[in-house]
Amino acid sequence: MLLIFATTTDEKASRFRATLGDITNIEFRTGAVKDTAIGCDAILIKFYLAHDRYGGTPKPGVSQVLPNNRNDGLPALIVTTPPFPPGDEVADPSQLEDRFYTMFAVPMTTFNDFLSNQSESKSLHVHREGLGLDSAEDAIVAGALRRAVLDFNDRTRPR
Question: Phi, psi (5° rounding) for residue 101?
Answer without folding.
Answer: -55, -50
